[in-house]
């Protein structure tokens, strides 16, 4: 029979939680509506089992009830875009840690998790390259009129404006520079100007300036209460002639009606997004080649990103149970 050492926490600093016991033979569930690549699951299994834990798999589930049943006695949960609601947390009575294999964690109810002192982590940086490559591809696709006959334009020499200079934003900047673009960026939470300077990127002082100078605006803000619906009519209208908005962040940050209105008023503007907005059919009909939405989220959908994020999630959980490492924790209580 597996032995489970009861969790004992010791608070040393306000934000840091340390374990005082090693947790052995934990049940770790991978719950993925959209499964990881086979190779990623094999790697996760190896990491989990070598550390003496047990791996459980729930893939391609279609009903919430399946997830609720599967989490009932697990200690840890690895998810992708799966929704971990308060109901799921309530059903998972032994849950100690949830790791979202990916960057955005807006699919996890942090408040409900924190109320139960369940650690929530993401795996920052693991799929950034995949997303950054997609952002560049999207720029070229729109510059070439979605590969339809006719004369397009080049991205070399154009201004690439990066809204939020995190893991993905920085890589997009690097790739844009390699393509001969002038790169500018805005991120109010990065106070170290040297970060931009060292990358050869111009740090602009306001979001207004960023949009006003953007031939291509690449969006990388997280979906938070502060950013939801924040990109709309005014920002798009302030962009230069022929500008393109590229969204590989989240659809929730977009004010869809605002974008539609701006594109109706200005026939030169273009918009491409990784995942269809609610009004995608109407946008396609109204704007033709000026609009495109991926039918399913594509950003992190590469074999490499899948494996990187999956393995990182497993390693973080194993380390958490072994040492209490909470380096990538995104919630607090
Ligand atoms: P990150 O955490 O490394 O960077 C986010 C950056 O946003 C940080 O530098 C932060 O300072 C900045 N930021 C936060 N609030 C802001 C605001 N109001 N204005 C300007 N900047 C702000 O995250 P990342 O890995 O770069 O990913 C960015 C986002 O991309 C994720 O939150 C996720 O929603 C999205 N994403 C999408 C896909 C996809 O499949 N399309 C995959 C990965 C990530």
Task: Describe, in plain words, how this protein is organized in 3D.
The protein is α/β, with parallel strands linked by helices. It folds into two domains: 8-126 and 302-323, NAD(P)-binding Rossmann-like Domain (Rossmann fold, 3-Layer(aba) Sandwich), CATH 3.40.50; 128-293, 3-Layer(aba) Sandwich (Rossmann fold). The protein contains twelve helices and 14 strands. The chain has helices at residues 38-50, 64-70, 86-91, 110-115, 128-143, 167-178, 193-199, 207-212, 233-237, 256-265, 280-287, 303-323; strands at residues 9-11, 17-19, 27-32, 54-59, 76-79, 97-100, 119-122, 159-163, 182-186, 202-203, 216-219, 244-247, 270-273, 291-293. Helix 5 packs across helix 6 (167-178). It is elongated.
> In terms of structural class, how would the helical and strand content be classed?
alpha/beta
**Largest sheet composition:** 7 strands, parallel
Helix content: 25-40%
Helix and strand pattern: EEEHEHEHEHEHEHEHEHEHEHEHEH
CATH class of the largest domain: Alpha Beta
| Overall tally of domains | 2
Can you tell me the CATH topology of the largest domain? Answer: Rossmann fold
Number of helices: 12
CATH superfamily of the largest domain: NAD(P)-binding Rossmann-like Domain
Low-confidence spans: 1-16
Q: Give Rg in angstroms.
A: 22 Å
Distance between the termini: 33 Å
Taking strands numbered 1, 2, ... along the chain, how are they ordered across the largest sheet? 10-9-8-11-12-13-14
What kind of assembly state do the chains in view correspond to? single chain
Overall spatial form: elongated
- Secondary structure: number of strands: 14
Q: What is the average of the pLDDT values?
A: 93
Classify the beta-strand content into a percent band: 15-25%
CATH architecture of the largest domain: 3-Layer(aba) Sandwich
